[in-house]
Write a structure and sequence with these properties.
By secondary structure, the chain is mostly helical. Helices cover 71% and strands 0% of the residues. The chain has three helices and no strands. The longest helix has 25 residues, at 26-50. It has one domain (2-50). It has helices spanning 2-5, 12-22, 26-50.
């Protein structure tokens, strides 16, 4: 499915699809999914601490 919705290349969706779909490596697919979520959460916590969301 990721090949249908975007250009070919090295994207996280393609990695998750290949790890879970073709290889069947569920833990690695979960790690590829969880790492960007954690990075975004850390970034949002950092900018919140700086006061970036005060004007919202």
């Amino acid at each position: 499915m990721p090949q249908l919705v975007g250009p070919p290349g090295y994207f996280i969706g393609n990695m998750v699809y290949s790890q879970q779909g073709a290889i069947g490596n569920m833990p690695m697919a979960a790690a590829f999914t969880l790492v960007p979520i954690v990075l975004i959460a850390l970034y949002l916590a950092f900018v919140k601490r700086l006061g970036a969301f005060d004007a919202l």
